[in-house]
């Protein structure tokens, strides 16, 4: 994987093979950040990266100037890798080892952008719990967005606060908003 833009543009990050992850493809990540670039100033936002895995999305935000980033993953190996990589690049990424759902149940901070990249094999019920907890616990700023990455085979359009979806190759991003 590589960082697409910003201070660390074109830097490659090689994750250990033993991590239980499926990193977002560079093509999909580039498409996602083109959308976000039209709505946010990255140096002014707070970001929550759920099911962070390798930290791929967190690194992209940090490279683009975001200073307030929390990466959550339940795998200790992923957390250690994100810490090692972000320290090496001097990126302001805070990591939390936790199950994403338990984190959402207890969180009290608000974010401009919440990105969730759960396992593609999740059931619709598991996927639906993400926006349910985010909006129930008021974790998004008024103008914020929740983005859930999933496969094209999964349709999240009937979920609460769904706004729209964009696909890039086999990746799909569904956007959820307050209004």
TrEMBL record:
It comes from the Bacteria. One of its GO terms (molecular function) is nucleic acid binding. GO terms for biological process: rRNA methylation. Coiled coil: none annotated. The keyword Transferase applies. CDD domains: AdoMet_MTases (cd02440). Keywords: Methyltransferase, Transferase. This is 16S rRNA (Guanine(966)-N(2))-methyltransferase RsmD. InterPro entries: DNA_methylase_N6_adenine_CS, RNA_MeTrfase_RsmD, SAM-dependent_MTases_sf.
């Amino acid at each position: 994987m590589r960082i697409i833009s910003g201070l660390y543009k074109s830097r490659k990050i090689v994750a250990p093979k033993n991590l239980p992850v499926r990193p977002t493809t560079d093509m999909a990540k580039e498409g996602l950040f083109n959308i976000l670039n039209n709505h946010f100033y990255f140096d002014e936002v707070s970001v929550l990266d759920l099911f962070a895995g390798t930290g791929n999305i967190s690194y992209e935000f940090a490279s683009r100037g975001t200073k307030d980033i929390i990466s959550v993953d339940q795998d200790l190996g992923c957390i250690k890798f994100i810490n090692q990589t972000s320290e090496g690049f001097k990126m302001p990424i805070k990591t939390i080892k936790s199950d994403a759902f338990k984190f959402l149940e207890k969180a009290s901070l608000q974010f401009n952008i919440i990105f969730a990249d759960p396992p593609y094999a999740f059931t619709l019920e598991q996927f639906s719990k993400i926006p349910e907890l985010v909006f129930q616990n008021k974790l998004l700023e008024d103008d914020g967005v929740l983005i859930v990455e999933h496969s094209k085979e999964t349709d999240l359009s009937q979920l609460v606060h769904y706004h729209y979806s964009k696909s890039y190759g086999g990746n799909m991003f569904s956007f959820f908003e307050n209004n």
